[in-house]
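User: Could you go from structure to sequence for me? I need the amino acid at each position, not a summary. Structure tokens:
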């Protein structure tokens, strides 16, 4: 079938299998071109099919030679419907891993459920060397979560807290810059967002894995967060999602204590703002990212998910095994992979241009073209070496 991008709101409802596979191969090739890292040999990645989770799994597999179990929630293709991008990504990843002789087990299901946690434990026990993992990467981004105990389903929203927020945003498809006003979240929406995107499920994962005896001595775990500059604070850091990330940090401390008895460690890593399926749904953020990319590309410091995740593993495993105190962290014990994004030289330039952007000068002042291209790439489109007029097996 001939596969073209089909948009519905913020999401693209089609994905191109060969394009997704090429994206995965490109990330694998990047890591293979770097120095090997003496890092984890067996990893579990929760949220492993797109964005930061996929890049983490690729970096661990091809940078450290890790066996892996990956958990994701994706749709396979059926009839004349394509699979979701993450489904194709995962297929491609498994092929690459297999070719490199690396065990890679995929579990397609709801990571928030008890069943999937049990399946993961079984897969670690039966399919990974020694039946344990050395690292757990938690990279879920989801609009919903059903609590495994109560059966209640929570939704996550991106809204300010306390008062309405008015700011500038861009429709990256049309290039129209406009002002948006977003009403503040209700208490229920705030709690829902914390229940979905906070740290509770990460803690449940770690308790289940520890209880089952599948965490190796010295095991570390990392979950991802974002802080961003002042222009995004009302909608991100000080909004509903920021509350969820505060909860993630709180649960990080609880997990850290839990792992201390066997020299394990828990980290939150603050990553750079990048185009992923999740971030493109946040108002204001696409305009900020377009501006940020322009400035960072000019300075030569722009990175994508894979460069970020390789750098994270490098940082975590540069020292003697188990010497977690030597890992570079900020005052709140967070790994800061947003260091280059937050450099004053970068942020001053972004802030200077922020007030000047209009629909008319968008293309000149920002990297909206790069944003758009990254967005289509997420679904396997826009790769110049592929002929999108050709039939492909979905
Ligand atoms: P993404 O949408 O690209 O990936 C989300 C992953 O979670 C996918 O693999 C998806 O299959 C999986 N998933 C979602 N719901 C699931 C479920 N119920 N069960 C199993 N798997 C499920 O998102 P991303 O942008 O890579 O975000 C990952 C983490 O990184 C999030 O915590 C996010 O806040 C954080 N982060 C993102 C950015 C950014 O700019 N994108 C920046 C810093 C931090």
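Assistant: Here is the amino acid at each position, in order:
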């Amino acid at each position: 079938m001939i596969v073209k991008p089909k948009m519905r709101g913020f999401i693209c409802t089609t994905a191109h299998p060969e394009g997704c596979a090429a994206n995965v191969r490109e990330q694998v090739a990047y890591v293979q071109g770097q120095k090997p890292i003496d890092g984890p040999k067996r990893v579990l990645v929760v949220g492993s099919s797109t964005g930061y989770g996929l890049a983490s799994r690729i970096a661990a597999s091809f940078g450290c030679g890790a066996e892996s179990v990956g958990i994701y929630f994706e749709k396979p293709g059926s009839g004349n419907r394509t699979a979701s991008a993450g489904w194709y990504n995962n297929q491609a990843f498994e092929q690459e891993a297999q070719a490199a002789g690396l065990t890679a087990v995929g579990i397609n299901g709801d990571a928030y459920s008890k069943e999937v946690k049990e399946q993961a434990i079984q897969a670690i026990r039966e399919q990974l060397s020694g039946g344990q993992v050395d690292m757990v990467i938690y990279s879920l981004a989801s609009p919903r979560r059903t609590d495994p105990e109560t059966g209640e389903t929570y939704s996550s929203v991106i809204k300010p807290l306390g008062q309405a927020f008015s700011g500038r945003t861009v429709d990256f498809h049309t290039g129209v810059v406009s002002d948006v006003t977003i009403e503040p979240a209700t208490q229920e929406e705030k709690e829902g967002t914390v229940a979905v995107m906070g740290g509770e499920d990460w803690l449940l994962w770690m308790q289940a894995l520890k209880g089952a005896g599948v965490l190796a001595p010295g095991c570390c775990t990392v979950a991802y967060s974002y802080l961003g500059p002042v222009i995004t604070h009302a909608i991100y850091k000080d909004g509903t999602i920021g509350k969820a990330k505060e909860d993630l940090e709180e649960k990080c401390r609880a997990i850290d204590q839990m792992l201390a008895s066997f020299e394990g460690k828990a980290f939150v890593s603050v990553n750079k703002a990048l185009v992923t399926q999740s971030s493109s749904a946040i108002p204001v953020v696409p305009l900020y990212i377009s501006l940020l990319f322009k400035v960072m590309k000019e300075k030569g410091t722009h990175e994508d998910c894979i460069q970020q995740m390789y750098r994270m593993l490098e940082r975590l495993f540069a020292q003697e095994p188990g010497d977690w105190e030597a890992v570079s962290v900020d005052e709140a014990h967070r790994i800061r992979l947003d260091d280059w994004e937050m450099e004053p030289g970068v942020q001053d330039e972004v802030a200077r241009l922020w007030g000047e952007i209009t629909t008319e000068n968008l293309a000149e002042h920002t990297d909206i073209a790069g944003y758009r291209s990254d967005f289509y790439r997420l679904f396997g489109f826009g790769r110049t070496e592929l002929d999108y007029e050709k039939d492909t097996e979905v």
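One structural detail worth keeping in mind: The two ends are 7 Å apart (CA to CA).
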